[in-house]
Amino acid sequence: MRYTLAVILMVVGVVVGGLGILQKTLWAPDDQITATTEIDADTPAVVVDPGMLNLYETPATLEAKGSGDLTIAQAPIENVDAWAGNSPVARVTGLAADGGLTVKSDNGDSKMPSPAGADLWTSEVTGTDSVKLDWTEDANRTGFLIAGSGEPGDVKTVTISWPNHAETPWAIPLMIIGGALFVGGIVVLFFNRNSAKKEKNRRTARQERRRKLAEFGTAFAIVPVLALSACGPEELPKPEPSEAPSSAVAGVNDDQAKRILDSVAEDIKAADKKTDDSELEKRATGPALQQREAAYKVKKKVEKQKLPPAVANEKVVVNYSAATDSWPRMTSLITSAGNDTQLLVLTQEDPRSDYKLWSQTQLVPGTKLPDIPDSRQGSALLDPKTKDFVTTPEKAVSDYAKALGSGQDSKEAKKFESDDFSKSIWKNQAAQKKSAEDGKAEVSYKYTPGKEIVAQGTAGDAAVVTGVIEAESTISPESVDGRTGTLTLSTPQKELTGSDSTQKPVTTKTTQVLTFLVPKDGKVRLIGGLETLSGAELK
After folding, report:
1. In this predicted model, what pLDDT tens digit does every residue of 296-315 receive, in sequence order?
2. Is residue 214 within 8 Å of residue 30, measured between CB atoms?
3. CB–CB of 506/471 below 8 Å?
4. Beta strand 60-76 with 155-163: parallel, antiparallel or unpaired?
């Protein structure tokens, strides 16, 4: 029995140290936490809810496998759901107890187009047969849409993984305790082998060893329990996205704005090169489409006639994003290229449509704009009839049209700050009237405000308003005692009417797209415009 304590200490040391080593090797947790799910073959797309990639510490990886070109697109979940629309999708909502992902099927009644390259996304990644997205951001309201061509079965599996930072706090202490016990057993064995004490001392030593054995036996019983208790089941984390916004948020972020701008500029440049209406319609609508379509027709008859300026896309000076949560959407960008600064109004008909250029105005050099709301917040879209300013946006356009026709001394003209555009119009009118009188002719003008108006709020007490005015100037030959004079026509009227001279009135038409700053008090100011020739005809 002399060696009993030594043996027990050494055995306990081996067992306790072994437990520590196992926690660092065979029992060590995986480097990653991984959850995966298979996608039903009848489903064309997958939506991953906000917060899913933030269930554990990031960086997280979202991976999809399937067939063909696959896309993972991200956007606020409200936009993702709007894109999904009535299409059937598999929605990833949480973790399953078996280590997989919980999936809820949303039934639908239509297919889904490929989401690749859509203007709605804040960003996207693509791949063939498999695609990965690395995520390090906060959850916020970001959702993800995964799809291929839009056909069912393109996406076969979805996997989310996180780094596993699980610790084994008992591993090192157990190895230290086990080593200490083992060494202690060797020491006891050494001293026992050299013991030559008397029987009394041997009995005392045996009693002492029994007492220590009882103490170490208790520790041996407790330590494994502690070690095993750390491996108990944990409650599965649940997604914690930001709360849904109580009001409309910015529709386009800064990166998205530049991507959309470049696409619009490139497509319109291609259409301009071929003067192709069908190509133009892919990226232009409203007044911008009207101006360029008319310019194409003029260009085909008058070769030297200039087209409207190219869309300035070297730099986004201000992302004048509108705060909106519905469609059609309107938003604006202030852009530049060289010395040309433009205000572009863009519109998106529905979630799956590309943004199109609605209007393009060149800002007056030296224009000082009021503070614009932060692009992360967005600015309010205003009702054209709102009475929150010195005049309504609708009436600002209408009054300017009347001022152009009535002259600089009219009551309407006095509502506006002096600007070079109206001055040039009135100067040209005076010159044309004098020339007409010298040629025994008459000239008249007509300015008709359009109904299409876009108004956005600023960070201060003002609104930026863009509207359209259709302008006509008509020259009529003098008619005396039944005898009518003859007008000699020059370029571009000559080519557009097909006549060098005529005894009929000649009407030249232009389209003016104008941008105003409408304050709370004071005078309205013209800050930008673009006038284009839209045609000429004999009446």
Report:
1. 999 999 999 999 999 999 99
2. no
3. no
4. antiparallel
